[in-house]
């Protein structure tokens, strides 16, 4: 309920302040220079007792306001909400100019209300504590009575608004052009837009044939020399004029003039840190793997994709398929944002029995729409996942009680003959059941008081696996941004599932699928044939800690290699092991092998591969003998190195990346990461290197650590150092990967 804080009913003070070009003077509506809001009504708490004297406590520095004070809804931080309402006034000039800043989300805005409806609405051009001057053209409203409402109905990041100096004038003083339309009469299939990751986002609507096409895009339009270009696909509008409408542009901007039609989108695909055998988006930003499903010989990989930039945003489902889990074919994006929101993570299933009525064997995608709230939606494909039709009655699952309500992972539960959805619900996983993928009922909730809870839970999965002694246990995956070594990581639980409730076995939680800093949001493939029987997994080989900062240009970030999951014993209890799928061995393009190397002190392979291009696999089997530990150091001629230290006394693998190269996180203050080692008489080490990543699979996948590295040239030297006594390398194989 909104509390009316104060409402002082004074008539509007109309000050005549300056002169417009027609000679008429400006009329000041509010300058927020008093200690109270005067004759404005303040509701809620966000605007405080009166205009703020600039920056409020814990706020970034506010600038660009006029005089000494402004209306600032950061009282109580971003979560506080409130509204300022002006007394009624008559519109007597052609323009209404004002200064505005703060958040630009749907719930922070200033509106002009005429009669009972919103006649004009304004939001800051960019999320910024710097106020900018905007203006409304109110020529058509002269003589009408109006009120202004300054609204902060938002919680969370940028949930506040800043407003100052509202005046009526015969001159448009806006520093910003609104709804600027750029029209192209072209037969080319693409518009190329210049981008710079450091530029603020502009909101752009594609229009064709006089209608809006799709949801608006947020693009970091380059001013000056572009860093790279992104394509806007207009092929389907051939023959019609197409336009881009920019919601707000700085007057004097230079980016729009560079936008040009083009036959293709050419760029340097093989940039230095583009992996050679890991999946990357052709261009643009990528995060979570989504909708992985197998059908008719194809492994589908959908993924969180920004087609309009190499930073996170504009979430679509990108798409690729593979027939061998080695090579991936790019396909057009499969799901684009709509009025319900952008397309967040989710899953896909094959509806063999046509439970949803979209046709037997349809692929049904179940995903989160991230709009004013997060809701679950479905879409179906009857052309093997190439194109999807969104269900006409979306969303299919809504719960206004949750702000974080996302990442549905769905599977068919044979014994209870129902679809089961695992959904991340703030810091638990809620399970829902459905006969038809459309009507969902709540089954149970898991997670209170167990496992890691350092941040919101994301991207759950729930699936059965066989234990080494032939029992079935269920595995629950949950990703969160507070992993064992900081940053993003995926924890798991092992337990029972009866079709309703997941009951965890008593194990020393939290347990982690990967102890490195670059494996997040991974889930497993649906519909792998029973004759194959494997549980296949892929993760986003990155972290929210540094994902937007990695030194690549036209694309950002890769997936892990596809991995096979299994339950194995670590000598004390079951652990979820992961190893590269066996298909990866088929990518080796030769080997140099050594056997039975006795190491007392150090052993160095000075050149692992002649002409190493950065894509290789190194396999070692180490018999520690009397050694209390050993180090594996990968290094290059530039003096950069990546160190794996096996401390057998404490049972830890310690990985030091501080000197690994140009990673945003590789510096003196980077703490090493730790992973527990299972006790073993001999240790197997499998390292997959690919330009910018090292995936370490130890002891059959019982310990896994995936990390990013950005060496200025490939590591091509391996040094093995024995600690506390001599050891033997039973085998050492090095494979280039093609
Ligand atoms: C996990 C995540 C998901 C969400 C998606 C948005 O990395 O935050 O929870 O659906 O990314 O891109």
Features:
738 residues; mainly beta; Jelly Rolls; Tachylectin-2, Chain A; seven-stranded antiparallel beta sheet; six-stranded antiparallel beta sheet; globular; disordered N terminus; binds beta-D-fructofuranose
What is the secondary structure topology, with strand pairs?
Layout lengths: L3 E4 L7 E5 L5 E6 L10 E4 L26 E2 L9 E4 L3 E2 L4 E8 L5 E7 L2 E6 L5 E10 L7 E8 L8 E9 L6 E9 L5 E6 L6 E7 L2 E2 L4 E3 L8 E6 L8 E9 L9 E3 L21 E12 L2 E9 L9 E7 L6 E7 L6 E10 L10 E9 L3 E8 L7 E2 L14 E9 L4 E8 L2 E7 L6 E6 L10 E10 L5 E9 L8 E9 L4 E3 L6 E2 L7 E5 L11 E6 L13 E2 L1 E2 L3 E7 L4 E7 L11 E8 L2 E4 L9 E9 L5 E7 L5 E7 L4 E5 L16 E4 L6 E8 L2 E6 L4 E6 L8 E7 L3 E10 L2
Parallel strand pairs: 22-41
Antiparallel strand pairs: 1-4, 2-3, 3-13, 4-6, 5-13, 6-12, 7-12, 8-11, 8-13, 9-10, 9-12, 14-20, 15-19, 15-21, 16-17, 16-18, 16-20, 22-23, 23-24, 24-25, 26-27, 27-28, 28-29, 30-31, 31-32, 32-33, 34-35, 35-36, 36-37, 36-38, 39-40, 40-42, 40-43, 43-44, 45-56, 46-55, 47-52, 47-56, 48-49, 48-55, ...
This protein binds beta-D-fructofuranose.
The site of beta-D-fructofuranose has 12 residues, from strand 22, strand 26, strand 30 and strand 34.
